[in-house]
Amino acid sequence: MKTHLLEKARIYEQSTRISVPAYDTLFAMAQAYFRAHLGEQETSLLVVGAGGGNELSAWGPSNPSWTFTGIDPSEEMLQIAQYKAQQLAIESRVQLLQGTIDTLPSSPLTYDAASCILVLHFMEDRQQKLNLLHNIHEQLKPGKPFVLACAYGDRNSDELQDRIKIWQSFFLEAGYKKAKVEDMGQVIMNISFLSDQDIQELLKEAGFKQITRFFSSGLFAGWMSHA
Ligand SMILES: C[S@@+](CC[C@H](N)C(=O)[O-])C[C@H]1O[C@@H](n2cnc3c(N)ncnc32)[C@H](O)[C@@H]1O
Questions:
Q1: Which end of the chain is more exposed for a tag (fewer CB within 10 A), N or C?
Q2: What is the pLDDT of residues 111-123, one digit of tens each?
Q3: Which residues contact 32 (CB under 8 A, 6 or more apart)?
Q4: Does residue 150's CB lie within 6 angstroms of at least one atom of ligand 1?
Q5: What CATH number is attached to the domain comprising 60?
Q6: What confidence tens digit (pLDDT) does each residue in 31-59 have?
Q7: Which domain holds residue 16?
Q8: In a domain, 177, yes or no
Q9: How many domains does the chain divide into?
C-alpha cells in the first residue's frame, strides 16, 4: 500500500480511539451480541461503512466461519480495508465494494447480521438516514441482528454542547494543540446529530425490533436490534 495511505490508516486508527473512548470494547460487545444470536454457524455479515477495515480486524480472525461484504463510497478507505484483509490473511472471506447500500448487487434477505458503525451522522437529513436503515433492514434475513453506532444528541441542548467540550478535552489530553482542537470543534458541530430517542424511532420506522442501547461513550452510542 502507498506510504500516504499507510500514514492515513495509522492516523485514523489513533484518532478514532481518542474520539470514541472504549472503541475496541464497542467491537467486542457487538461480536458477543452477534455470536449470542448466531452461534458457530456460517454467517454472512454486511458491513456498511467498511472503509478503514476496523470491523475486519476486530471480527475477522476470531470468527473463521464469518464472511464479510463491506460497502463504502471512499476508495481510499476501502484500500486501507483491503490492505488489512491481506495482512490478516482473511481476503478469501472478504468482499469489498465501492458505493452505498443502494448500489449493493445482492438480493434482499441475504445477510445473517449487519453493522453500521460511525456512518449515520455523516448523512445530512433524516430521510437519508431512514433510507439507509431501511435498506439495511431489507438486506437482512428476518430476526437477524443489527448493530448501529453513531454520534447522538439534541443539537440545541446544553447537554450536547457540554459533551462536545468533553470530546475536545479527550484530544487535548492526548496532546493535540488547542488551535487544532478548536477547529475540530467547528467540524463536529456540522455533523448531523439526532437524539437517542429519534435514532430509536428511526430504527423502528425502518422495521427493526427489540432495540437496546448497549453502548455510550462521549459523543457516540451504540444500539442493538433485530430485523
Ligand atoms: C468514521 S468512518 C467509520 C469506518 C468504520 N466503520 C470504523 O468504525 O472504523 C466512516 C466511513 O463511512 C463511510 N461512509 C460515508 N457515507 C456512507 C454511506 N452512505 N454508506 C456507507 N458508508 C459511508 C466513509 O467513507 C467512511 O469510510
A1: N
A2: 999 999 999 999 9
A3: none
A4: no
A5: 3.40.50.150
A6: 999 999 999 899 999 999 999 999 999 99
A7: 3-154+193-226
A8: no
A9: 1
